[in-house]
C-alpha cells in the first residue's frame, strides 16, 4: 500500500488488541511498546475492551492507551472510534494482535478506510483447542488487505500458511524475545529464603496457566516418580485457572502436598526461576506455540525439560540446552528431570548453553528491532524488509 502522505519520524503505530490482561501475548505487547525506540516509532495502544492490569505500566512509560471501544460483538461504533484514534494520532501503521475476532476485523477495517501506509497482523497461536480455524470467516474476507502477517516461530508460520491460508510472500517470522537484564538467574540464596526452601533442596519450576492443555496432571505424575527417587525435591507450580481444583485433588491422591507447591499467580517470576534448579513445561500440542516461559528459564540459565510440541524445538536442542520428551510421556519426563537433579555439572553446562541461545537469537532487543524495521519500512512504502524473510534463528543478532 502506498503511503497517503510522506512518513513522519517517528512512525506512529497503533496496536489493536482485546485488552492488556496478564497473559503471554499481552505481556509481549506491553514489553514491545515500552522498549520501542521513540526516535523510530511512536506506539499507541487500542484495547477494544477494558484496558487491563498491564495498562498502568504501559501508560507510565509514555504510551497512550485507549480502551472500552466496543460494547458488543457487532457494535459498529467501534469503527468510528478506531478511525478517530487513527486520525487524531496520525497513525501510519496499524498492527492487530491476536488470532481472528473483533480486534483483527475492526482494526484492519478501520486501517483500510483510513488509508494507512501499512496493515500488519501478529499471530501468537496456531490452533484452537477445539481444532477449528483460528481465523474466522469475516477475517478471511479481509486477508488480501494485509501488507504483512507476523508469526512468532518458523513452524508456526508454516502452519499458518499451509492450514490457515496466509500468503507465503507476506508472512514473516519475528521471534518472541526476553529481557536479559530481568531474567539473570541471580539471587538464588535470597529467593530461596523468601520461599522458605533449604539451600540444597532440588527445585523444579513450572510456570503456566491451569488449563487442560498445560498438562499439570502429567507434571504431577512425573513429580511422583521424581519424589520417590529424591524425596526432598520440590516442584513450584506458578499460575492459576480453570483446572486448579482438579489438580489439587490429584496432588492429594498422589500424596504430593509437601512436594508440589501451588503458588498461584505471581509477579516475581525472575525470583522463582532464580530459586530453581531447572524448569519444566509439559504442555499438550493443542495450542502451544512459542512459550515465553521457556525463554525466561533459558535466559536465567535454568535448563528446560519440555514436551516436543508447538515450536518448542526451535528453542531447545535436545540434549544440548535442555531436553525434549514426547507429549503425555510422564515417565521419560521424570527420567530427564532426575538426570539433571543428580548431575549439577550437566545442569550448569546446559544452563549456560540455554542462556547463550537466548542471548544470540531471542533477546527482547532483537524482537523490538525487527518490528521497528517492519513498521518503518511499510511507512516508507518499501514493503517488508528482505532480511525478515530469512527467519533462521541460527543467524543470531
Give descriptors for this structure:
397 residues, alpha/beta, Rossmann fold, 2 domains, seven-stranded parallel β-sheet, six-stranded parallel β-sheet, 14 helices, 39% helix
Description:
The protein has 2 domains: 11-177 and 364-386, Glycogen Phosphorylase B (Rossmann fold); 188-361, Rossmann fold (3-Layer(aba) Sandwich), CATH 3.40.50.2000. The protein is built from 14 helices and 13 strands. The chain has helices at residues 24-35, 55-60, 77-89, 101-114, 137-141, 154-164, 188-195, 216-229, 244-253, 269-275, 292-299, 330-342, 344-361, 364-379; strands at residues 11-17, 41-47, 64-66, 93-97, 118-123, 148-151, 171-173, 203-207, 234-238, 260-264, 278-281, 304-307, 323-325. Strands 3-2-1-4-5-6-7 form a 7-stranded parallel β-sheet, sandwiched between helices. A 6-stranded parallel β-sheet has the order 10-9-8-11-12-13, with helices on both faces. Helix 5 (137-141) links the parallel strand 5 and strand 6. Helix 3 (77-89) packs across helix 4. The two termini are 29 Å apart. Mean pLDDT is 93; it is low at 392-397.
Amino acid at each position: 500500500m502506498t503511503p497517503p502522505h510522506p512518513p513522519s519520524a517517528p512512525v506512529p503505530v497503533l496496536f489493536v488488541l482485546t485488552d492488556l490482561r496478564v497473559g503471554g501475548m499481552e505481556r509481549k505487547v506491553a514489553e514491545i511498546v515500552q522498549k520501542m525506540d521513540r526516535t523510530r516509532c511512536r506506539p499507541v495502544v487500542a484495547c477494544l475492551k477494558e484496558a487491563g492490569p498491564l495498562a498502568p505500566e504501559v501508560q507510565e512509560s509514555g504510551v497512550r492507551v485507549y480502551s472500552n471501544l466496543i460494547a458488543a460483538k457487532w457494535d459498529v461504533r467501534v469503527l468510528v472510534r478506531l478511525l478517530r484514534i487513527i486520525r487524531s494520532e496520525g497513525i501510519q501503521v496499524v498492527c492487530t494482535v491476536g488470532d481472528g475476532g473483533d480486534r483483527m476485523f475492526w482494526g484492519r477495517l478501520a486501517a483500510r478506510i483510513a488509508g494507512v501506509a501499512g496493515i500488519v497482523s501478529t499471530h501468537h497461536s496456531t490452533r484452537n483447542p477445539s481444532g477449528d480455524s483460528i481465523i474466522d470467516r469475516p477475517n478471511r474476507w479481509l486477508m488480501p488487505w494485509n501488507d504483512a502477517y507476523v508469526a512468532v516461530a518458523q513452524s508456526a508460520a508454516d502452519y499458518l500458511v499451509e492450514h490457515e491460508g496466509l500468503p507465503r510472500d507476506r508472512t514473516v517470522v519475528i521471534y518472541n524475545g526476553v529481557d536479559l537484564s530481568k531474567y539473570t538467574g541471580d539471587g538464588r540464596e535470597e529467593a530461596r529464603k523468601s520461599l522458605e526452601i533449604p539451600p540444597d533442596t532440588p527445585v523444579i519450576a513450572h510456570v503456566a496457566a491451569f488449563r487442560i492443555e498445560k498438562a499439570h496432571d502429567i507434571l504431577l505424575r512425573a513429580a511422583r516418580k521424581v519424589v520417590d527417587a529424591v524425596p526432598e525435591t520440590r516442584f513450584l507450580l506458578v499460575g492459576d485457572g480453570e483446572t486448579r481444583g482438579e489438580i489439587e485433588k490429584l496432588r492429594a491422591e498422589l500424596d504430593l502436598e509437601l512436594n508440589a507447591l501451588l503458588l498461584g499467580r505471581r509477579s516475581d517470576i525472575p525470583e522463582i526461576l532464580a530459586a530453581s534448579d531447572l524448569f519444566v513445561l509439559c504442555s499438550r500440542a493443542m495450542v502451544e506455540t512459542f512459550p515465553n516461559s521457556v525463554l525466561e528459564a533459558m535466559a536465567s540459565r535454568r535448563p528446560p525439560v519440555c514436551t516436543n510440541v508447538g515450536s518448542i524445538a526451535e528453542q531447545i536442542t535436545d540434549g544440548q540446552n535442555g531436553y525434549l520428551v514426547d507429549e503425555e510421556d510422564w515417565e521419560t519426563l521424570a527420567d530427564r528431570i532426575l538426570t539433571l537433579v543428580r548431575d549439577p555439572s550437566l545442569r550448569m553446562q546446559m544452563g549456560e548453553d540455554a542462556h547463550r541461545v537466548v542471548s544470540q537469537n531471542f533477546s527482547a532487543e532483537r524482537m523490538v528491532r525487527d518490528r521497528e524495521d517492519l513498521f518503518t519500512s511499510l511507512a516508507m512504502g518499501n514493503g517488508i524488509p528482505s532480511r525478515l524473510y530469512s527467519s533462521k534463528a541460527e543467524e543470531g543478532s
